[in-house]
Write a sequence for this structure.
């Protein structure tokens, strides 16, 4: 009798390896999940934008003499980011992104509420001043509205 048999030891069962057919499937699922999360195979700026980084591209300030002016929310950015309108004008924000956004003054005195894709909100501005605002959902999205 061996020593192992005398103490009641049993042979250790080794786990069976995955069939080789599952390896390509596992790689495919990993790549698909990466792309679905905005990572893609080569990286993607959209993922950073989804977390509210917003665009850092320079924009030309806009001076509007129209009674009604539109600000587009596109690619996690306000376009234009720096807008000047005349006293008594209205400004309409329209969300062109799939993600929800809003435009809310830094001091919280005015805001559009949450805008889903292609929704819009219009606000009147009849007090001269400079109003910094942001998307409260993505706080790095910032802009300035000046009423003259």
């Amino acid at each position: 009798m061996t020593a192992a048999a005398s103490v009641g030891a049993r042979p250790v069962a080794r786990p069976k390896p995955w069939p080789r057919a599952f390896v390509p499937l596992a790689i495919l699922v990993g790549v698909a999940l990466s792309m679905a999360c905005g990572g893609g195979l080569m990286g993607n700026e959209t993922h950073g934008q989804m977390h509210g980084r917003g665009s850092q591209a320079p924009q030309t300030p806009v001076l509007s003499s129209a009674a009604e002016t539109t600000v587009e929310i596109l690619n996690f950015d306000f376009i234009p980011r720096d807008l000047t309108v005349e006293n008594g004008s209205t400004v309409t924000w329209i969300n062109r992104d799939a993600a929800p956004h809003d435009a809310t003054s830094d001091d919280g005195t005015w805001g559009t509420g949450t805008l889903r894709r292609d929704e819009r909100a219009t606000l009147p501005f009849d007090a001269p001043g400079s109003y910094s605002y942001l998307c409260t959902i993505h706080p790095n999205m910032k802009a300035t509205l000046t009423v003259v």
